[in-house]
Each structure stands twice: as structure tokens, then as C-alpha cells.
Amino acid sequence: METQIKFETADQGEETARADLYGLLATLLYVPPSKDLLLVLSSAETNGEGVLGEAWTHFIETARKSEAELVRDEYEQLFVGTGKPEVLLYGSYYLSGFLMEKPLAALRTDLQNLGLERAEHIVESEDHIASLCEVMRYLIASDDILQANLATQKQFFATHMQSWVGTMCDAIITHPQATFYASLAQLAKIFFDVEMQSFDME
């Protein structure tokens, strides 16, 4: 599952905006942003409304003040480190307390049923938050109506993300060394909350 960032025009609808935000989260949580990506983010519009719009504005303002090298250092300190990372980004850890456990096996089964598999060059396991966000992006943006439908999105999110992504975001937000990623995690948490509310309304 490759992560990539794409920006679309605002008139392409809410579903495109959802897919784009999942894609952005996948990109930034898999690897730290390059200088060019930070420049792209810095030029993004900040005229959104509501709590999600406010979180987006704050994130973009943070990106405008960020330097790629410092953000890379922050990413490595938070999510890589030596030994156990400061903050883990894997669903199995939050669901079972351990990495590479039963939740990952269940996820792999569901991905296989969706016809999805991890690309060879992706080193992280499928329960990494970046991979899960990329799956959600695919389920929203794909032209395959048998897979890219609201019911499938709801089931995948509820099964593999809903119970733990807020805890993960809080761990990032409250980490004393997090700045860029605290802002991103705040955006992610609010976005995930909006997703949950939207799914519940369906």
C-alpha cells in the first residue's frame, strides 16, 4: 500500500476531501515530510469551518513555522528512537498490549478479503497507522463500488481503528517533545471523531 499525497480542488466534494486527508495522514505518519512537502503544506488554504477547520488552520500554521530537519528529528525521537519508540503507531499494541499479535492477523485476513496486500517496499506492518489511513483513503477513492462504499469504510474503521486511534493521538499530543506532530495528531483526532460521528449517523 503506497502512501502518497494528492491535493484536489475544493469543488470536488466531501469524499475527495476525506480521501485527501487520510492520504496526508498516511504520508506524514509513515515518514517525516520533505522540505518540498512542507512548502506545499504552507501554501494550503485555511478557510475551513468548525472544529476540524480550526485544527486544519492550526496545523498549517505550524507547518509554516516548521523546518524539515527539525521535523525529521521530532519524528525520529517520537516514533523511531533506540529500543522502544516513545510513541507506538501500531494497532496491535493498543488492542492487545503487544506487537505482531492477533489483531494484526485479523487485519491481514480482512485486507486479503479486500484484495489488498502490503507493497514489497513497505517495511512497516499493516497495522501501522499510516497503512490503515492509506486503506481508508483507498476505500473512499477507489472506483470499485464493491469495495469503496460507506458500509465497508464503516466496518473497517470500526474494527481496526476506532477503539485506539484516539489514545494514540493523545499520546502524541501530550508528549513534551512533540510540536509539528502534536498539531498533526490534534487534527487527526478531531478528524477521526468526525468520522465516527458520521458513521454512527448512517
From TrEMBL:
It holds the Pfam family Nitrate_red_del. It comes from the Bacteria. Keywords: Chaperone. Gene3D superfamilies: TorD-like. Signal peptide: none annotated. This is Molecular chaperone TorD family protein. It comes from Undibacterium rivi. The lineage of its organism: Bacteria, Pseudomonadati, Pseudomonadota, Betaproteobacteria, Burkholderiales.
